[in-house]
Amino acid sequence: MQALGKIQVVDLESIKIAIATKMDSAAYSSWIAPLEFDLSDTTLSLITPNQFSTDFIKNVYLNILESVAADFNLSLHIGSGVTSQNIVQSANDNETKIFVPTAASAQTSIAFNNFITSEENSFVVSACRKLASGSASFSLLFMYGSTGCGKSLLTECINTEAVGRTLMMTGSQFVSEFSRSLREHSIFAFKDFCRNCDTFIMDDVHVLAGKRATTEEFLHLLTDLRGANKKVVLTSNSAPSNLSGFDRRLQSIFASGLVADVAAPNKNVRKTMLLRSGVALNVAETLSSRITGDGHLINGVAMKIKTYTELMNEKVTMDVAEKLLTDTLQKNKTPLSMVKTMCEKLGVSFDEICGKGRSRTLVRARQIMMVALKSVTKLSLSEIGRICGDRDHATVLYAISQIEKAKSSDLILATEINQMIEECR
């Protein structure tokens, strides 16, 4: 009788507030707030929309919920179904929440055979093929690289050729759809929608940074997908260790899979892209050396040339391209300008490079510059030495041998030098 007397003064709002104070706000909003609460006799019932939600809440939040129920002298029941108090409401509002994503622009269907692969990207492309075939030993692939390096194209290739059902969205779309599901009280339907796939692909995952509720939901999603042996593909502009705005749990999950960097298009890739767009061979050959931008810039150049040809009804020669692309083409580089550009990349001043400083950082920067100049110019070793602060022939020769030796065991250094050489061309 004492328990019954207590129940009469208990209302569901008080119970909800008590639960909310013991949970993370994002977790409460995502998992508990959308539930149907029912108070009957001495039992508090939480009605979930499906068995997945029931199992998840019991596994993660059961202790908290039982503790709150005990504070109100109630027993706890968690399950999917209809209670005596919501039969009428269900009869009048007889619908099962189904999440329908906002209509988005159609995704490009591209196969791996159409992706232009450079030597630097052969590893990551092979990994993408392996995952799409369903035979990969890794369940999560995290690709990172600068804008225009081809990350999005690779995700589209996976989406096109992956075995089973794929779900592909951008980080911005995930944020938007998650927020909408909260507003429309369809969060559980959204959860089911994201999990009902064999391969989950998210492009630009870094967009989620700093959005606490969204990253919390995304953490649950990744945990559930990997627990169900689903494949996950993520792309970002930075490596997992360099991402900010994510807690350590998410960064740890990002880094637990196969992490691969995607290199920017090199000269051969740029040339092939231009040729495929209908640019004449001699023009493509020259432009590929004078445009060092990302893939987006190359596509823009190709589109400009193609449009000019269609509108003016004449072929684009190199002379026409010079006038057409004055805002894009790089002027011919001098060895001195190359050195000054490399100084900016390596974080040292030109005066320091030409000075007598012998710090480890300065010495390594000079050696890298000497190797780059040797690769992209026809200068003699003595001429290279004069540009780098009046060093003699023997110093340049020693620098080149030291760098070549270090490159064989330091892949990061080798990649850095290759990119430096490519930008100097």
Give the CATH superfamily of the largest domain.
P-loop containing nucleotide triphosphate hydrolases
How do the strands of the widest beta sheet line up side by side? Answer: 5-6-7-4-8
Gross geometry:
elongated
Strand fraction equals 5-15%
Residue stretches low in confidence (pLDDT < 50, at least 5 long) are 1-8, 82-96
- Major β-sheet annotation: 5 strands, parallel
Number of domain modules: 4
Roughly how much helix do the residues carry, as a percent range? 55-70%
Query: Which structural category do the helix and sheet elements fall into?
Result: alpha/beta
Explain what this protein looks like in three dimensions.
This protein is of the alpha/beta class and 425 residues long. It folds into four domains: 2-92, GMP Synthetase, Chain A, domain 3 (2-Layer Sandwich), CATH 3.30.300.180; 112-261, Rossmann fold; 267-324, no CATH class; 335-424, Orthogonal Bundle (Chromosomal Replication Initiator Protein Dnaa, Chain: A), CATH 1.10.1750. The chain is 56% helix and 10% strand. It contains 21 helices and eight strands. It has helices at 2-8, 12-21, 25-32, 51-71, 87-92, 122-133, 151-161, 171-183, 187-195, 212-227, 248-256, 267-276, 281-290, 295-312, 318-324, 335-346, 350-354, 360-376, 381-387, 393-407, 411-424, and strands at residues 36-40, 43-48, 75-80, 140-144, 166-170, 199-203, 231-236, 258-261. The strands form two sheets. The protein has a five-stranded parallel sheet with strand order 5-6-7-4-8, with helices on both faces. Helix 18 (360-376) crosses helix 21. It is elongated, with a radius of gyration of 30 Å.
